[in-house]
């Protein structure tokens, strides 16, 4: 019963994403192809056409790898669902190993997945014009190819390393957007890239974007404490309204340097991502460009706890377990619009 109610809520929410076919993927259920339900991610992919949406439901079984050669939208149920209590009644995460975005997949969007591959990349993209949002990445994203533009990475959590790494002679990405992310590990982007890096927190020791990059770097929190681990643009970039634990840039343009980390974030016990919410009245509160908060929870589209996608989410579901006199089973659901 709970899954049928959840599906109804999701179908309503998906109206804002697409009027194309919605395909459910759940590896804890049997496939019913005539109902667009598949237990295997690869089978669901094979049944899709460009423009379709794959809703990959939470499970305790990883879904594996997928190579995409179509323009698709993939939506999962997030991560840290056992840590952030009260935001979703489904405590399963949508776990995958790796996704490769190959030729033909330009325009694809991926939301709410937890990538656990421990090799050299969680997402490998050979194309531009893609969105990676509300995801958990164990390691970084790799860009392969030339003239790769318009990669958007936002509202995501990077565990070991972050950034847009490149392989071999691949050119650096251009016009990328990296915003409202939490990067626990090191961060790398090949020199001579162009793009925007705003409202992130970088907790790792290394932040390396090269000396010749053309970047807009605003409203970020840098927590690395070794100056030699920073490689920042020397000219041609705009660096303002950032906070740093040391001084990788000057205190001009409303940058704050030598800030104590404990003064920036809320205190107490919080989830792995919730602990990066800023402290009221602290140095990040309202001190960003245009008066917004500095860090991942600031700006027009702030980071969402657990990477919940922008669709309705059931955060409470209850039933007595007993039918009433007319044979119906009363249930109570509470839904967050997100």
Characterization of this structure:
The protein contains 2 helices and 29 strands. The protein has helices at 2-13, 41-47; strands at residues 22-25, 37-38, 53-56, 66-68, 73-75, 95-96, 99-101, 109-111, 114-115, 123-125, 130-133, 136-137, 141-143, 151-154, 157-158, 161-166, 176-179, 182-183, 186-189, 194-198, 201-202, 207-208, 214-218, 221-222, 230-231, 238-240, 243-244, 313-319, 331-336. The strands form 4 sheets. Strands 2-1-3-5-8-11-14-17-20-23-26 form an 11-stranded parallel sheet. It is globular.
The helical percent reads under 10%
Count of β-strands: 29
Through-space gap between termini = 23 Å
Q: Give the overall pLDDT as a whole number.
A: 88
Give me the side-by-side strand order of the main sheet.
Answer: 2-1-3-5-8-11-14-17-20-23-26
User: Hey, roughly how much beta strand do the residues contain?
Assistant: 25-35%
The number of helical runs is 2
Radius of gyration: 21 Å
Q: Unreliable segments (pLDDT under 50, ≥5 consecutive)?
A: 1-18, 313-320, 331-338
Biggest beta-sheet profile: 11 strands, parallel
Overall spatial form? globular
| Alpha-beta content class | mainly beta
């Amino acid at each position: 019963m709970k899954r049928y109610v959840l599906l109804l809520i999701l179908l309503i929410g998906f109206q804002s994403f697409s009027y194309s076919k919605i395909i459910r993927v759940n590896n804890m259920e049997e496939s019913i192809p005539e109902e667009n339900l598949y237990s295997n991610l690869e089978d669901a992919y094979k049944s899709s056409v460009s423009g379709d949406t794959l809703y990959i439901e939470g499970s305790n079984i990883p879904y594996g790898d997928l190579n995409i050669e179509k323009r698709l939208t993939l939506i999962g149920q997030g991560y840290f669902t056992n840590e952030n209590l009260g935001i979703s009644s489904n405590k399963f995460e949508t776990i995958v190993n790796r996704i490769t975005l190959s030729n033909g997949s330009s325009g694809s969007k991926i939301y709410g997945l937890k990538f656990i591959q421990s090799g050299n990349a969680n997402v490998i993209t050979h194309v531009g014009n893609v969105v990676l949002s509300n995801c958990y990445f164990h390691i970084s994203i790799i860009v392969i190819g030339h003239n790769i533009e318009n990669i958007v990475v936002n509202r995501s959590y990077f565990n070991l390393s972050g950034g847009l790494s490149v392989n071999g002679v691949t050119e650096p990405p251009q016009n990328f957007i990296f915003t409202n992310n939490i990067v626990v590990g090191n961060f790398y982007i090949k020199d001579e890239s162009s793009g925007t890096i705003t409202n992130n927190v970088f907790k790792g020791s290394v932040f390396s974007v090269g000396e010749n990059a053309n970047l807009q770097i605003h409203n970020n929190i840098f927590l690395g404490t070794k100056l030699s681990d920073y490689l920042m643009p020397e000219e041609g970039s705009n660096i303002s309204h950032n906070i740093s634990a040391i001084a990788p840039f000057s205190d001009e343009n409303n940058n704050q340097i030598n800030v104590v980390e404990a003064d920036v974030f809320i205190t107490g016990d919080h989830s792995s991502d919730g602990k990066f919410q800023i402290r009221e009245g602290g140095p990040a509160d309202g001190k960003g460009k245009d008066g917004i908060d500095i860090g991942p929870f600031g700006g027009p589209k702030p980071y969402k706890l657990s990477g919940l996608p922008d669709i309705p989410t059931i955060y409470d579901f209850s039933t007595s377990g007993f039918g009433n006199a007319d044979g119906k089973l009363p249930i109570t659901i509470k839904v967050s619009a997100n």
